[in-house]
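Input record, target 12 of the design panel.
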C-alpha cells in the first residue's frame, strides 16, 4: 500500500513561505509583480491563468493579466513583451503556452528579459540550470516535482531515476535537477522511441512520467516500492462528470498505487506545485531585480 504525496498540502506550505517573503520584500520597499500574457481562447489556459492571478492576489503579489485576441500578430506580441521587459513594476513575465499556431513561441521566449523569465524557458536560464547557477530560474513543474520528493523524504542519492519524456518544459530540466550535485540520482531519460520502455521503468526507484498520454504507465512498469511522480494532466471525456471530462495523469493510478511506496495523484499532485513554484520564482526575481 502506498503513501499518497499530497501536492495540495505541500503547495500550501510553499505558498506560506511565499507570504513571508512577500512581507519581507514589501518591508524593503519592493512590491513583487507578475504579468501573465494569454493569447487566444484556449479554455484550459484560461483556467490556469485565472488560478495564477488568483494566487498572486492571495499572497499580495501585484499581477497583471494581459489577454490578447487569437489574431494578435507576432510583432504585436513582441511589443507587449518589450513593454513588460521595460516595466519596473513587473518582475516576472509568463506567456501562457501553447500560443496560436501563427506565433513563433521560441522567438517570444528569446525576446523575454531572462531576468524576468520566471518560467525558466529562456536559453540563458536553461544554461544556468545546466551550470547549476542558482541565479537562474528553474522551470516551475520540475521544481515542484523536486520539492515533492524532498517533502516525501525520498532518498535521491544513488537512486535510479527514470524520466519518461524529454520536453524542454519538464523532461529535460527534470533530468538535470535529478543529476545535480547534492541530489545525485542516476538518471535515465526515456521517451516514445525508447526500446523496452516498460523494462527501463521497472529499474526505477524514482519514476517521473511526463509524456502526456493518459494512464500509459501500468502497474507492471513499476518496481515494488518505487516512488512515482505523475506530471500528466490529461482531459479525457467522461459523460458522468458535469464538466463532461475528467482529469487523469500519465499513470494508471489505482493499479500503480498498489506497488509504489509513494505516488502523486492527479489532480492534487504536481499541478498545484507548478503554481506555487511560479510564485517562488516571481519572488526570487523581485529580490534579484529589486
Ligand atoms: N508559460 C507557461 N507556463 C506554465 O507553467 C504553463 C503553461 N505555460 N501552459 C500550461 C501549463 C499547465 N500548467 C498547469 C498549472 C497548474 C495546474 C493545476 O493546478 N492543476 C490542478 C487541477 C486544475 C484543474 O482542475 O483543471 C491539479 O492538478 O490539481 C495544471 C497545469 C501550467 N502551465
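The sequence produced for target 12 reads:
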Amino acid at each position: 500500500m502506498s503513501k499518497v504525496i499530497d501536492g495540495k498540502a505541500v503547495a500550501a506550505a510553499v505558498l506560506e513561505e511565499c507570504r513571508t517573503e512577500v512581507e519581507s520584500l514589501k518591508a524593503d520597499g519592493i512590491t513583487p509583480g507578475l504579468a501573465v500574457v494569454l493569447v487566444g481562447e484556449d479554455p484550459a489556459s484560461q483556467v490556469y491563468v485565472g488560478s495564477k492571478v488568483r494566487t498572486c492576489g492571495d499572497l499580495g503579489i501585484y499581477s497583471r493579466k494581459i489577454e490578447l485576441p487569437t489574431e494578435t500578430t507576432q510583432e504585436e506580441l513582441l511589443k507587449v513583451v518589450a513593454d513588460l521587459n521595460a516595466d519596473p513594476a513587473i518582475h516576472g513575465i509568463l506567456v501562457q503556452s501553447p500560443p496560436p499556431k501563427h506565433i513563433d513561441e521560441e522567438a517570444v521566449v528569446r525576446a523575454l528579459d531572462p531576468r524576468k523569465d520566471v518560467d525558466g524557458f529562456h536559453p540563458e536560464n536553461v544554461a544556468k540550470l545546466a551550470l547549476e547557477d542558482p541565479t537562474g530560474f528553474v522551470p516551475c513543474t520540475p521544481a515542484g516535482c523536486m520539492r515533492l520528493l524532498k517533502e516525501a523524504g525520498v532518498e535521491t542519492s544513488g537512486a535510479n531515476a527514470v524520466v519518461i519524456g524529454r520536453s524542454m518544459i519538464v523532461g529535460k530540466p527534470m533530468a538535470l535537477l535529478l543529476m545535480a550535485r547534492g541530489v545525485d540520482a542516476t538518471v535515465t531519460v526515456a521517451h516514445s522511441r525508447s526500446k523496452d520502455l516498460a523494462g527501463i521503468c521497472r529499474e526505477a526507484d524514482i519514476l517521473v512520467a511526463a509524456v502526456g498520454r493518459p494512464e500509459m504507465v501500468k502497474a507492471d512498469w513499476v518496481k515494488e516500492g518505487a516512488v512515482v511522480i505523475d506530471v500528466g494532466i490529461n482531459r479525457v471525456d467522461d459523460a458522468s462528470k458535469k464538466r463532461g471530462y475528467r482529469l487523469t495523469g500519465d499513470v494508471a493510478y489505482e493499479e500503480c498505487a498498489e506497488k509504489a511506496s509513494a505516488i502523486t495523484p492527479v489532480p492534487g499532485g504536481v499541478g498545484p506545485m507548478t503554481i506555487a513554484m511560479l510564485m517562488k520564482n516571481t519572488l526570487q526575481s523581485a529580490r534579484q531585480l529589486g
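Residues 16 and 59 are 8 Å apart (CA to CA).
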